């Protein structure tokens, strides 16, 4: 090859490269343009996640995993385990996770090489006026046996989408984000169910103790009725005192009936929550109420985001929306795929599996959106607005979470103070009871007076029991507000795009 020929060859290669670059540049400049993308909203900063300085419970820190076991109650443990295994809401949550996992597999399956086996049998009458007009003739010498042919195709077809701009990767990431959100939602449902079971359980236990106190009151009221009835029969006092004592006895009996009905309602609510049948809920035996163990951590900040499964679910949904935006943007750029076929193809079945019938197709394809009637921009705009909506919902969820912790913590502080005051009040009233009891033991007063002196103490004990029940309820609510024992291994870091 002489110098001139080499020069011509180099010039030809250079011109081809220039033409390829020019063609690619014109293709990229000719694609649909982004017109309607807006600025993403800003998520709430972790520094804003804090409590007022006057809300503080100086005990232990965050709740631990299986937080309900800290009460040391085997009945409660068994009920919560049964609920987490069989509750309909748990089954629904697990099904949603399985559905999201299937969606991930479905989206991921479209990103790899697709290979299919093909087998086609076509009995065709060829049109004499179409593109295959000559084959409509019946001239065996020329290989024309028309107008009827039985065409056969057997082979393998393959296709591969080349993800140049990350559209498919973004779609897979979006589906993974939804799957992670569903997993966090399952933890949120577990927390909801365990907290509700604990609330109902201690509602039952509190009512059991209330009935015991009411039975004590009923004993004193019953003795008072008998004593006044005997005196009235002898004409020693007016019947008015007897009727007043009977009215007090009936009032206590009404309270006992109301408390027993409340226990039945609690049990039915528990049965529905656990998902148990008519005989599927075990008997709940009375136990002593545990001491309050509620506590607030020294600081919330970013820890609350990792501890609250509902917030983590919201963050994953937001992260997934960012990936959908990336996929919507990538749709504006050219897409490239490769299709291939290898097999045999013949107009006569007798020739199908011969060497001459072999067919190979290799079809690279480039697809460039130019005019789409605004479809791509509408898709991007919808993805962006959907993401902004999720960001605002997440921000509100964070504020609600801080509010829940603050309100529950302040209620616990107030109940703690009220409980201490109520204990002191009972001590003062009990002094009067003990004094009257001592007089009765010395024969200085009647048994009726001694029994009636117990009534104010029992009434105050009922008030103390109500405070302790409220404290347990608020303690469980605080555990729920702090996320229970959940903790995200790696809290999602939001990066708007």
Helix-strand string: HHHEEEEHHHHEEHH
The number of helical runs is 9
Number of strands: 6
Mean pLDDT: 85
CATH architecture: Up-down Bundle
Gyration radius (Cα, Å) is: 40 Å
Spell out the key features of this protein:
single chain, Outer membrane efflux proteins (OEP), disordered N terminus, four-stranded antiparallel beta sheet, alpha+beta, 497 residues
Any overview of this molecule?
This protein has 497 residues and is of the alpha+beta class. It has a single domain (35-111, 163-334, 369-481), classed as Outer membrane efflux proteins (OEP) (Up-down Bundle), CATH 1.20.1600. Helices cover 59% and strands 11% of the residues. It contains nine helices and six strands; from the N terminus they run H-H-H-E-E-E-E-H-H-H-H-E-E-H-H. It has helices spanning 3-29, 74-86, 88-109, 167-234, 239-274, 303-307, 309-330, 375-441, 447-481, and strands spanning 114-125, 138-139, 144-145, 148-162, 335-346, 358-367. The protein has a four-stranded antiparallel β-sheet, with no helix packed on it. Strand 2 and strand 3 form a beta hairpin. It is elongated, with a radius of gyration of 40 Å. Residues 1-10, 17-23 and 25-30 have low confidence and may be disordered.
């Amino acid at each position: 090859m002489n110098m001139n020929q080499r020069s011509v060859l180099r010039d030809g290669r250079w011109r081809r490269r220039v033409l390829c670059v020019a063609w690619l540049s014109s293709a990229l400049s000719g694609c649909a343009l982004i017109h309607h993308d807006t600025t993403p909203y800003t998520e709430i900063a972790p520094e804003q996640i804090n409590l007022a300085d006057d809300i503080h419970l100086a005990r232990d820190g965050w709740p631990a995993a299986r937080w309900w076991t800290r009460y040391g109650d085997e009945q409660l443990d068994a009920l919560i385990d049964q609920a987490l295994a069989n509750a309909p809401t748990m089954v629904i949550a697990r099904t949603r996770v399985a559905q999201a996992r299937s969606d991930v597999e479905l989206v991921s399956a479209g990103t790899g090489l697709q290979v299919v086996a093909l087998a086609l049998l076509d009995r065709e009458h060829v049109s004499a006026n179409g593109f295959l007009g000559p084959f409509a003739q019946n001239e065996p010498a020329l290989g024309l046996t028309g107008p009827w042919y039985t065409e056969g195709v057997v082979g393998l077809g393959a296709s591969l989408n080349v993800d140049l701009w990350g559209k498919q990767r973004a779609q897979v990431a979006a589906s993974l984000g939804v799957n992670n959100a569903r997993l966090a939602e399952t933890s949120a449902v577990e927390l909801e169910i365990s907290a509700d079971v604990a609330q109902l359980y201690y509602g039952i236990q509190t009512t059991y103790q209330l009935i015991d106190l009411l039975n004590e009151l009923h004993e004193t009221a019953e003795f008072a009725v008998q004593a006044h009835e005997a005196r009235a029969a002898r004409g020693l006092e007016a019947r008015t005192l007897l009727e007043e004592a009977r009215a007090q006895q009936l009032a206590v009996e009404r309270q006992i009936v109301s408390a027993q009905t409340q226990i039945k309602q609690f049990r039915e609510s528990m049965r529905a929550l656990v998902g148990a049948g008519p005989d599927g809920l075990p008997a709940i035996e009375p136990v002593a109420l545990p001491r309050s163990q509620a506590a607030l951590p020294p600081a919330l900040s970013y820890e609350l985001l990792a501890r609250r499964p509902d917030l983590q679910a919201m963050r994953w949904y937001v992260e997934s929306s960012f990936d959908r935006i990336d996929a919507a943007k990538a749709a504006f750029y050219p897409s490239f795929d490769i299709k291939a076929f290898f097999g045999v193809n013949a107009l006569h079945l007798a020739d199908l599996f011969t060497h001459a019938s072999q067919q190979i197709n290799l079809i690279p394809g480039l697809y460039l959106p130019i005019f789409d009637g605004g479809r791509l921009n509408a898709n991007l705009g919808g993805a962006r607005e959907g993401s902004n909506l999720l960001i605002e919902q997440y921000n509100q969820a964070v504020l609600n979470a801080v509010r829940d912790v603050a309100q529950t913590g302040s209620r616990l502080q107030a109940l703690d103070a009220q409980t201490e005051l109520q204990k002191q009040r009972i001590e003062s009233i009990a002094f009067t009871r003990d004094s009257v009891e001592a007089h009765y033991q010395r024969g200085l007063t009647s048994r009726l007076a001694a029994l009636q002196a117990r009534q104010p103490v029992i009434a105050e004990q009922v008030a103390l029991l109500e405070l302790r029940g409220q404290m347990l309820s608020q303690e469980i609510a605080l555990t729920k507000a702090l996320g229970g024992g959940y903790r995200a291994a790696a809290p999602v870091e939001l990066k708007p795009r």
